[in-house]
Amino acid sequence: MKFKSILQSRYGGLVIFSFIFLALSFLVRTILLLTDIQNVDLNLVRLLQIYCFGLFYDLITISYFIIPFVLYLLVVPDQIFNTNIHRWISYVFFIISIGILVFSGIGEWFFWEEFSVRYNFIAVDYLVYTHEVIANIRESYPMPIIIIGMLLLSAGIFVLVKKYFDKTINSKSRFTSRLATSLVLWLIPLLAFYSIDKSSAEIQDNTYSNELAHNGIYQVFSAFRNNELDYKAFYQSIDDKEAFTNLRKLIKTSNSEFISDDIFDVRRDITYEGEDKNYNVMMITVESLSGSFFTKFGGQYNITPNLDTIAQQSLFFTNFYATGTRTVRGMEALTLSLPPTPGYSIVKRPNNENMFTLGHVLNSKGYESNFIYAGNGYFDNMNYFFGNSGYNIVDKKAFSDNEITFENAWGVCDEDLFAKASQVADSAYKTGKPFHNFIMTTSNHRPYTYPEGKIDIPSHSGRKGAVKYTDYAIAKFLREAKNKPWFKNTIFVIVGDHCASSAGKTSLPVKKYHIPLIVYAPAIVPASENNTVASQIDFAPTIMGLLNMDYTSKFFGKDILFEAPNRALLGTYQKIGLLKGGKLTVQIPTKQVESYQVIDNKQKVDNVDQQELEEAISYYQTASYLFHHKGYNFLD
């Protein structure tokens, strides 16, 4: 059958739609390429890879996209198909489909600007939590102009192809021939579903290039499908007993003893000399607080002047790393001391009740633990996770109208949040209980709005202003806290949940995981710097060490001040890594492994060290095992 006759057949509309899809995908891919061309290491081979792999994923996406339209074209008889009613129905669906493509393309540009990746798990979250996301978009972008532009572009495309589309509506066909065509068109996505995923065609040595080669719409559906990855199915593994034998060696310290000889039991008694120190723990987890913002780490914009000063008066951990690239990953590691298992964070997963958290441990010592959040804690399942793992919930619903001086899509401003945290601390102090407050800020998040007149950068002008406002709010909080009766007995902790950007040329760009950890307690902790390589899973054990408390632990991390871990665990929702001795070992969900030398924040491809790979496997395989076998629940 000649191409012209195909174009004028009943299925010709799908052909026209496919060409539009490919053209728009090519345009989006090219715009994104030009946006970050300096990071792509561009050459002829790389360019061909980006566009050839991109065409592959575009065609697969089209095959999924047209499934319902193929069904419609199969069942509608000629008597209806060749009528004006069908013509107008077809116009509506065709225009809507084009609109979806245009909307997706525009959205991808903004998404790339924010995250330097195509649509992924974050985009799925955006589809789930529509209230916050729509409000955030409205406050961040000139939506009326964007919508008008989208409608004009969609209408313009339809006008260009309308005369060709009309020819597809005046055609006749037999049901048997339609059935054969439809079965072929359905077979393609069926085969793709079982044989192709986002790692089937990858550009291994440059993450930017790899992201450009993907298709955003495909990535959304892939994220829905793969929200949790079975460790053994997707990653190199070893025998479970061997993995736990290795883990027990990795987490053993000189002040710990395993309770049981059962190889799968990681419980151990941690002991410290002397009495418990019932210090309060005021933990400020700062949204997107990259180490690179600090002057000490090369920050050139003076946006953390107060934190720079506070760090000099504190115990400052200078080689501390986030375990992931999302807030829920930071929360997971800081509270659970557990490596980032592939897929969604445990905070968002089902069956995450009664987990072994820092809150539960401190509650068993007589503390009151509170999760204090600036926004609505149903977002990302935070309230459910914290509420079922030892924490009282204090989110935006707990704020009275007169306690809110400023708010945006994500919640109240940091000053209002800290005022509420101080109020919660006052209440706990009156009961005579020590408290542990997990405070989660939101001001350093798009749309980057905050109260005017507080700093020298106008609100809604970008990330730098939001960072500087958070810096101002933290300093104000600490100044006011000095007048509180609980101040001298309180350890203030300032830590990032993740970095502001996680994009890089390599799979896991180490410098994009570097965050500050500051312990400020002038009457308790002497000012000093600690250069040990560690990550967020070491936070909870280190806090317990500062409190000098004996306890039964399941934590994977170590007390940095007692026995240096000298390693960091970090990952995305698919790629998981171990940083140790200047070498990064990365596991990929195709049972492949990459290795890099890390020197001065630059990464160079290196040979895989089998011992370090086995260590990485032991950490991640056992973490996944314990979660799925209820082995990481709190000990009542």
UniProtKB/TrEMBL annotation:
The transmembrane residues are 12-35, 55-76, 88-112, 145-165, 177-196
Q: Which InterPro entries match?
A: Alkaline_phosphatase_core_sf, LtaS-like, OpgB/LTA_synthase_biosynth, Sulfatase_N
The keyword Ion transport is assigned to this record? no
**How is it placed in the membrane, per its record?**
Multi-pass membrane protein
Q: Which cell locations does it reside in?
A: Cell membrane
* Record carries keyword Transmembrane: yes
Span of domain Sulfatase N-terminal? 280-548
| Keywords for this protein | Cell membrane, Membrane, Transmembrane, Transmembrane helix
Query: By its UniProt entry, which Pfam families does this protein fall under?
Result: Sulfatase
CDD domains associated with the record: LTA_synthase (cd16015)
* Chief location of this protein within or outside the cell: membrane
| PANTHER family given in the database record | LIPOTEICHOIC ACID SYNTHASE, PHOSPHOGLYCEROL TRANSFERASE I
Q: What is this protein called?
A: LTA synthase family protein
Q: What is the lineage of its organism?
A: Bacteria, Pseudomonadati, Bacteroidota, Bacteroidia, Marinilabiliales
